[in-house]
Amino acid sequence: MSGFTGLPRKDFQQRIKTIREYLSEKKLDALFAFSDEYRPGNTLYLSDYYPINVIEESPQGVYVPVEGEAVLFLGAINAKTARGISWIEDIRSIEEMDRFFQRCNEEKGRKLQVGLVGEALLPVRYYRRVQSALEGSEFVDAEEIIQRMRAIKSHDEVERMQNVAHLGDAAIRAAVLRMKNDPVTENDLAAAAEHVIRLAGGNIGSATIIAAGIHTKMPTWRPSAKKIEPGEAVLIDANPSLQGYCADVSVTVFNGEVKGEKRRLLDLSRQILRDTIDQMRPGLPASTIYEYFLERVRQSGHEQYFTPFAKGMRAVGHGVGLDVVEWPNLGADSTFVLEPGMTLGVKFDLHGFE
Fold it and tell me: By the 8 A CB rule, do 57 and 37 touch?
């Protein structure tokens, strides 16, 4: 059976090879990459298995030694399913993790140097168990290697990103079309968007946001039974996942005809977004994208209506891939340079008026 993403096995073997080269260079014995069930990117990238969430609240991890075979750790139920999907042959329950690491420590006969990825997602309970099993060993932050690898997509990955982006567009269009049928609620629009995603064989990459009228003043919102009134602004944010790869698509529309200042704001936001995207090219420092975007918004005199990506103006975009939001951010303090193969979401929403 092929893996979840449909990418060739050799791609995953090459990723493991690249990690081993990194381990040798840094003089590390192994790398442990961790994910949870809702942000699976790190382990999906290495194992080609996408866990079923909620059925068991279980973290997951991939252990890559500098020599030897990779090991995939999952909850007991997911571990059984993964044996027919993941290319990794050694698949174990995550409850065996501490015993496994203890044996690794004993076999080496010395303290281990382990690169850790996904520390922010690792529950304290499991971290303590690993730490206890590897008592005296040193954990080194190795986030950089997976971040760099995941940031540059292969041709096949870019193709999957294009497919899921089209699906995100289709979901948005379905929600807008549904709005033309009165009466309609936020829940109705969410259902229309997610119906399209499911029909295409996709998953919900992150929660669908439908915020109408007064709710557009919130930085985020769960769809509700609120009726969408004529003339109200509606924020639609639909994020599908297809073959493991995600899209992040968001628009602000109005229920009915739009005139005057509201029309001008919509046209302005569309133009600034297009101009910002046109600025993006390989070799350009990422911070200049943030600076360009904010300068255009300031020049417009309508800063109060724009929220770049997150409250606090921390970025105007971010990486998109196996997770809806992943490294890197397009922020003022971004130090990376844009490279071919990066897939980035550049997004801001119109907020604060009904």
Answer: yes
Residue 306 CA to residue 327 CA, distance in Å, equals 22
Q: What is the pLDDT of residue 308?
A: 57
Q: 3-state DSSP call for residue 113?
A: strand
Q: Taking the CB of residue 288, how many other CB atoms lie within 10 A of it? A: 14
Q: In one letter, which amino acid is 136?
A: G
Residue 281 burial (C-beta neighbours within 10 Å; 0-12, 13-18, 19+): exposed
- Let me know: does 52 contact 80? Beta carbons within 8 Å: no
The residue to which tokens 């971040």 are assigned: 147
Rounded to the nearest integer, the mean pLDDT of the chain is 89
Nearest-angstrom CA–CA distance, 187 and 191: 6
Is the separation of the CB atoms in 118 and 31 below 8 Å? no
In 10 A of CB 351, how many CB atoms? 19
Bond from prior residue into 183 cis (ω within 30 degrees of 0):
yes
Measure Cα distances from 22 to 18, 48, 108, 146, 232 in Å.
6, 21, 20, 10, 53
* For residue 313, pLDDT beyond 60: no
| pLDDT digits 0-9 by tens, 322-342 | 999 999 988 888 889 999 999
User: What pLDDT score does 300 carry?
Assistant: 82
Task: Name the token pair of 162.
Answer: 């294009």
Pairing relationship of beta strands 249-254 and 233-242 according to DSSP bridges: antiparallel
Residue 237: which of 225, 259, 221 has the closest Cα?
A: 221
Structure pTM?
A: 0.90
In whole angstroms, give the CA distance from residue 271 to residue 351: 17
Whole-number Å distance between alpha carbons of 161 and 159: 5
Q: What is the pLDDT of residue 44?
A: 96
What does each C-alpha distance from 163 to 196, 200, 312 come to in angstroms? 14, 11, 32
Residue 144: is its pLDDT beyond 50? yes
